Amino acid sequence: MTLKDTCIGFAMTGSFCTFARVFPQARRLREEGARVLPIFSFHTAALDTRFFPAEAVWARMREACGEEPLATLQQVEPIGPKRLLDLLIIAPCTGNTLAKLAAGIADTPVTLAAKSHLRNERPVLLAVSTNDGLAAAARNIGELLARRHYFFVPFSQDDPEGKPRSLVAHMEEIPACAACALAGVQRQPLLPGTP
């Protein structure tokens, strides 16, 4: 499936160390013909970190997507009622966000965007980035793998020696995975070798 003329929500949550790998993927989606609407969690929108100041994150996503990021509950609520998106991507998707999605909690712009979007039976693509992917977050990954309309960017351990329970998605596969999710297919293999 082509991404041309699709509308894709690109939601970012607070795995700040992976932002540099995510920005280019939003740009690639746009280059492939999609309209890309950036969506920020509260932390993504507001926190200055050792990786990026919040202002730089806003600027990078504005430039990559050509759109102003949505960063409030009020801004994302119409996503479902107005059928704004063909696909919602959450990249990076933290363990905290995985837990909220698995439990049906919609108290951030990203999780409310997912809830609103899912009411239309449309796909959500998750690009995990969590230090406890093979620990506490494992149950939430399993829960979401078993649900309709959730798809995952293939992931693997990013530092098996230093962080043996950490998982990170292969962010460079986001555009290909987006096309698969739009077609209702999980890209395989889900668990490739180390990135």
TrEMBL record:
Protein name: Dipicolinate synthase subunit B
Alphabetized GO MF terms: catalytic activity
Domain Flavoprotein: 8-175
NCBIfam families: PRK08305.1
Coiled coil segments of this chain: none
